[in-house]
Design a protein that fits this description.
Elements (H helix, E strand, L loop, with lengths): L4 H13 L26 H25 L1 H35 L5 E5 L5 H11 L5 E7 L1 H12 L2 H5 L9 E6 L4 H12 L4 E6 L3 H41 L1 H9 L4 H44 L11 H26 L8
Antiparallel strand pairs: 1-3, 1-4, 2-3
Helix pairs in contact: 2-10, 3-8, 3-10, 8-10, 8-11, 10-11
Protein name: Cell division protein FtsX
Pfam family, one: FtsX_ECD
Subunit structure: Forms a membrane-associated complex with FtsE.
Length: 350
């Protein structure tokens, strides 16, 4: 039986008009994100390496810029050195004065004059009673006869003294204290003056008190001078770093445009300030050592004329280390103040 062509054509027309069925496609899986990870971060080790490398680069850049401007850098360093050498040199001389006079203090003693009618037995009894008590190391008894003989030998008026009807000199006890502190000597002097049979107490080395007072005054003057000149060093560094910032204004603007932080920009200037201060401290050490060497000969000769075994000493090892570090800290402080004040004024204009 022949196929029905009309039905076939009808089916074909129906199939052509039907909506084509799309094959089912499986959606691709998205890559899973690690929980809590929103952005890529550098490791702590990489950050530390970058931080250390930038410090090294900043120090190298500071040294290169100081070397590039040798004349101006040398003048700035010399100003810092002179400002610090003055109080530091005075402190060294003051320490030498303390060491030299420490041996002279042993000659300090009090002369205790007794009443004229005090017997020799009473005089020796008092000397024995005072010895070893109340800051007294030892005592020495000088009777009226001994005092007269010594006065005749030293004064050259022996014939005149022989013509006197009576010995005019009082009995004497020499008291040697165990301390030359002015407060201790004053307390001991007042205590002996109140003792029985004592007419007068005299500190024979009165200059010890004056010397201690002068040394104390010198110490305070050095402290004030140190503070004033340290402030001067900080101001010098503030002005120096300010000029350096102005000369690198365009470079700073470019660094900020590309995302450089204030800390990134600040770091080279801080190293510059520290290098200036540290170099100034080293130069001040050289100046002080040279001055001590130049003054050493005349001062040692002067001390030998006074039969002193002391000699002029230079800076201690701790002072040689502390002074450059202290100067470097002042330079760092000045640089920090200058950068904090002027770096914020430099911003890119869009």
């Amino acid at each position: 039986m022949a196929p029905n062509n009309s039905n076939r054509g009808k089916r074909n027309r129906v199939n052509r008009n039907a909506t084509p069925v799309k094959p089912h496609r499986r959606k691709p899986e998205r890559p899973r994100r690690v929980a809590g990870a929103h952005s890529a971060q550098a490791s702590l080790k990489d950050r530390f390496t970058s931080w250390r490398q930038h410090h090294q680069d900043s120090l190298r850049d500071a040294l290169q810029r100081l070397n590039a401007a040798r004349a101006s850098s040398a003048m700035t360093i010399l100003v810092i050195a002179i400002a610090l050498a003055l109080p530091a040199g005075l402190a060294v001389l003051l320490d030498n004065a303390r060491a030299i006079t420490r041996g002279w203090d042993g000659n300090a003693h009090l002369s205790v004059f007794l009443n004229m009618d005090t017997s020799e037995a009473r005089q020796r009894e008092l000397a024995k009673e005072w010895q070893g008590t109340g800051h007294i190391t030892r005592t020495e008894v000088i009777t009226r006869a001994q005092a007269l003989e010594e006065f005749k030998a030293l004064s050259g008026f022996g014939d005149v003294l022989e013509a006197l009807p009576d010995n005019p000199l009082p009995p004497l006890i020499v008291v040697f204290p165990d301390s030359t502190d002015p407060v201790t000597l004053r307390a001991l002097e007042n205590r002996l003056a109140k003792a029985d049979d004592v007419d007068l107490v005299q500190l024979d080395v009165e200059w010890v008190r004056r010397l201690h007072a002068l040394i104390e005054l010198g110490q305070r003057l050095i402290s004030v001078l140190t503070l004033a000149l340290a402030a001067a060093v900080v101001l010098v560094m503030v002005n120096t770093i300010r000029l350096a910032i102005e000369s690198r204004r365009e470079e700073i603007v470019v660094v900020k445009i590309v995302g450089g932080t204030d800390g990134f920009v600040r770091r080279p200037f801080l190293y510059t300030g520290f290098c200036f201060g540290f170099a100034g401290g080293l130069m001040s050490v050289v100046l002080i050592q040279g001055a001590m060497w130049w003054l050493g000969g005349p001062i040692d000769e002067l001390l030998s004329l006074y039969s002193s075994e002391q000699s002029l000493t230079s800076m201690t090892l701790s002072s040689l280390i502390i002074l450059p570090l202290f100067s470097g800290a002042l330079g760092l402080l000045g640089a920090w103040l200058a950068v904090s004040r002027h770096l914020g004024d430099i911003e890119p204009n869009f």
